[in-house]
Amino acid sequence: xxxxxxxxxxxxxxxxxxxxxxxxxxxxxxxxxxxxxxxxxxxxxxxxxxxxxxxxxxxxxxxxxxxxxxxxxxxxxxxxxxxxxxxxxxxxxxxxxxxxxxxxxxxxxxxxxxxxxxxxxxxxxxxxxxxxxxxxxxxxxxxxxxxxxxxxxxxxxxxxxxxxxxxxxxxxxxxxxxxxxxxxxxxxxxxxxxxxxxxxxxxxxxxxxxxxxxxxxxxxxxxxxxxxxx
Length: 230
What we know:
Largest sheet: 4 strands, antiparallel
Mean pLDDT: 76
Number of helices: 5
């Protein structure tokens, strides 16, 4: 019987199997390294791109912040300019109103019964100081002043009135204030109520003035029966 030694054949098969496995291992290892290298390069490029984009956005944000600051400064300057223009317009309007009021005073003041010593203005408040022959002259002047279209009729107030001797004559020294306003606003202050509102109001019986009301400072409605001093 013939015997054949198969050990070399088996060894060759084992060696070939090992060689294939090693080749497959190194092939897979190479592919893995290639894939990892590709991913590393791709991620590195993406990170670099994102870094550049971040830098660009930061620079753009800085530019926008600078522009926003400039806009805020411009808005602040605009508000200041508008406030200055409003103040200038208000001063111009008040100056024109004061001029008109002074013209009316020059034409309405009785030169033989009343004389002014000082005329002052603070804002829209006009202060008049002078002397008159008596309380009746002051009351007539205040009523005439309240009828002016440039004066608030509710803000004509006699601050003080005292007797004073001037060159041997007993006169009344007075100080009164009034509120200067635009003629349109003054007309609204003096505008009568609507007919519907007048009908709804029920007539009320006149009430006697209280002691507190009698003690208030003299205003527009001064009594006519006060005799002139001197």
